[in-house]
Amino acid sequence: MGINSQEAIKKLKALMDHVDQPLKKSFQNLHQGFLTETLERFLKAREYDVSKAHKMLVDCLKWRVENEIDKILRKPIFPADVYRAVRDSQLVGLSGYSKEGLPVFAIGVGLSTLDKANVNDYVQSHIQINEYRDRVVLPSASKKYGRSITTCVKILDMTGLKLSALGNVKLLTILSTIDDLNYPERTTAYYIVNAPYVFSSCWKVVKPLLHERTKRKIQVLPGCGRDELLKIMDYSSLPHFCKRESSLSSSRSSGHQGSQNCYSLDQPFHQQLYNYIKQQSLMTEAVEPIRKGSFHVNLQVPVSKSKGAAKTIESELRKYGSGLSDTLIELEIM
């Protein structure tokens, strides 16, 4: 950390000392005691421009207060079968830790159908995992490894990816916007594995939706990426889809059965997350009733990005002929 960055952190901290009390309270929940690291994350996201970083951080805190994000880990997704449906169609899990102690999150991009629940349920689940990571997983890792650990590694599995997945671009844009604006610089690197031939077309659609700083962190690895990933993590921390010799029969190996599947609701990460939220809700319910309704986040998808994505989708699908006409759905983002 250079002199300029230290000075920027100092200036941003001074500005944050003057925010309103509700924002201060949410800020404490946001940084979890890692104040300097949190300030630097927002500064990195805005190229160390203090005024822009301050605006970004204040906007984030306002978003948290308006949408009661600080209480989201007390709000289970009801009923239980809806939560299971979310887990079965929004594939994510914690497979282990890197050699540096960073949590390794596996995301099944290709096999995530995102069609078993409504948008609000998927958004709620995504934010809950973010918050559980920030409030529980990262502080626990910091304690275990004896140093500040405030970032993670993500491995994106493209097994089973089809062009029809482009129909989920609105939801994916919402989730990426949430992360860009409110959880900046939480991921050190993104590794893409098991990329099929249609990946290039999907990438043309998704790439413009991502912030430039995010794109710089993305690496596409050959095959299942096992050899490259073993340079930064032990074999035991590899996701199940990176342990096979090849991507053949990948659908079977990425199914929802088996103790090695890090996506499974029965795996420790999801069991701990589920029980944590359940316990928090019970403690809260003893003090105040919990409203068991749909979760809504006030976040607008950038119109310019959405229109551009829709045009790219149409262009890419036409390359594959009229047989894919059913995929040319009328997206709500247009």
TrEMBL record:
Origin organism is: Cucurbita maxima (Pumpkin)
What name appears for this protein in its UniProt entry? SEC14 cytosolic factor-like
All residue ranges annotated as the CRAL-TRIO domain in the record: 79-250
Q: Which CDD domains match?
A: SEC14 (cd00170)
List the PROSITE patterns: CRAL_TRIO
